[in-house]
């Protein structure tokens, strides 16, 4: 019975579309796993193994009749029982009753399955998906091909025809498994073609362990490792393969594998890039239209418009007469802030849209401020706007720039790069292909931007300025007061932004005359005394807009500029202004209307960089000490200090609420400062964490800005409440900078309480990043300060941190001493979660010193405390489960250890704790090693490396590499194992870690492949 389809997969029964006459009611069959039959959601009885074997044989006959002799041979082979024919008839009769007489039919002394609905057999669906994937791949649509192949492979539910006896079933099982592996290799091949090499390593590592003689999998693993920057491991895979094939089969690797090794040894540059760039197959043709709206009252600049339009026409080909682009054009507009660079560029870009039919890209590069946009981030945004899937966007700047240029090849796209810092920021963002063009605006002349058409934009002429003013205000109001209007535009310095602000204010106030506005602007006390050179001239324009604001608007303008974050939420802004949300929103939106504030997104606001500086100057100049009107401000503070105090209180109260949701019942909550301004409340943990991570930059900037004695303790406590930001790895650097700023300010003011807490949190994050020496030093200093200040939090948590660091660095006696002190301090403070934490840490010390029974006992005590409190302390409980899993693994209790670590893994993932997510995967790898499951261990270790990428420090990475090497060694990949151990040894020796001795032993005892 050879039931293979023409395209190589097994043949299946003919199927008809739903709705055909006589169709059975939703009958479905599975053979890619246990043989099952279902009618709707009801699973039907398919009888004994031999009866299921008969059903499987018929399902795989593609509707053709199988004679009784053929079925007997399929079920029993050359040794059938004496009553085989009767048994076949009995099986068929039972199946007909369980299924449908119209489906299993008798014909010519045999049987057949007929009339199945479309999609009724999982194998048929898998074959359709495979054929569709093959067509998509041939058409170059790798993204679609990958997705469809994943759907096909997802139909398998374990081994095909599982538990079905008989020679026919066994032959089909082998054939189906070979087909599945072929599909899997095709999908992995496309993964690598699209640049998903790092993600593929873990899966390929597990597959090569499961199928060690399958050379194609080895070849794909070598390529994935090489493209992940792991050349030594890639070559080690080849050495392992060559040795294994020689030992098992007496043959050499096939030609393709040998050629790949040669190219890796020669560092073939073509090998480093996917054969098909990740973008090409995954791009959905998107026509971005990102240009901001052009102003309807654009006026003047006719010479510049004509000049720049000619340059763009040359690039698009519309000026060449042949319809094709001839050159990639770059025009760079330079001038002082407020001179109208962006307005002019946007206007010209809109005029040229038809010449660039494939789209227009826009970005504000924020070059005038301290936090200019990174080219990598901008390229990621551009690639997504052009239709590139998130998973296909590479990591590095060079890769993104190369993919960006490839995506634009053959397309006619206009790119507007607004507010650039310098040429270095711009270069990676230039298209570089014919038919495309870039418009750049900047405060500096980009003389070092090769090939750029440079334009220096000056202020408007008096006639242009008056025309702009008239278009905004209206001809009727200006005509009768022409002299006053000329006075207004002259007072504006003919700067377009200044004219627009003044005219907009006049247009919004129907009771004002032009003369009233001119009189206001004539008073130089309402402007800067004189216009200075360079960017400071922009302040004159902002002074005009600020002077025209209502008092409440002016106060909001200057106070909101105090916060250092890249933007500010409406709730945080309301705290700064000490206003209800609705009133604050009205004020902020009115400032947006005057162009003094930008709405970055619904509910979020930001300043232009120069406007922020001007707003701060206004606050320093104009703010008086806070009076009775600021209910949440400490008495006697200046308005600026009171505003920042309220912002700090808002962040502290809200972050404390998030901390309470994450760690309910935590005693630390009773020791945190209480500010006078309330925070937000959240209905669930997900929204709380969303707020914390969204506000990370603004929150930590507020801590970093704190410099007055009255706010230092609250700033230090805010570090405590927002510890998840440091632990997650996402904001660790900014967190450390904030902690350092508080330490410096506390030293200056002699505040031991604030300094101790800030040093403690600094120590904690240093430990998370693997900087153990520095962490230990900071923890010791924190403890000294905590004792001096009588701070129960620091007095308990500092020795706990010291104990953890001593454990990591192999100083077990010191670790036990520190943790015993911490345990006593936690108990004295009635801090049961802290007590549980110390018990779990002591468990790890006992484990490291061979006291396994007491290690298990201590960890169980800690977990029991977490569970006894029943406060939903998921994150703390995850730490307890983690410690318990380690202890149970060493005790040989694999099943409960696996359960504990799996629970911890899910909790850490939910809490967005990337570090502990990765470390739990590492511990699962160690568990699988203890359970003699090296393939699963290697897969977990590979996942851990991927999750821990860029965080956790070299010590943790070296530990994971050690476990990965042991897993690889266990599946026979000896050379690759040695590469992992050698890398781990290098790291351990650099850190002077005691683990180096263990790795040396592994290397010494491991045979060389």
Task: Give a written overview of the molecule.
This protein has 45 helices and 16 strands. The longest helix has 27 residues, at 167-193. Strand 11, helix 16 (423-426) and strand 12 form a beta-alpha-beta unit. It is α/β, with parallel strands linked by helices. It has a 5-stranded parallel sheet with strand order 10-11-12-9-13, with helices on both faces. A 3-stranded antiparallel sheet has the order 2-3-4, with no helix packed on it. It starts with 14 loop residues before the first strand and ends with a helix. Helix 20 packs parallel to helix 22 (538-547) and helix 41 (914-930) runs parallel beside helix 43 (953-970).
Defining traits:
1009 residues, five-stranded parallel beta sheet, globular, disordered N terminus, single chain, three-stranded antiparallel beta sheet, alpha/beta
Mean pLDDT: 84
Radius of gyration: 35 Å
Count of alpha/pi helices: 45
Q: Helical content, roughly?
A: 55-70%
First-to-last CA distance? 44 Å
Which spans of ≥5 residues are poorly predicted at pLDDT below 50? 2-24, 277-283, 319-327, 524-538, 626-636
Amount of beta strand: 5-15%
Spatial ordering of strands, largest sheet: 10-11-12-9-13
The main sheet comes to: 5 strands, parallel
Name the shape in a single word: globular
The total count of strands amounts to 16
Structural class: alpha/beta
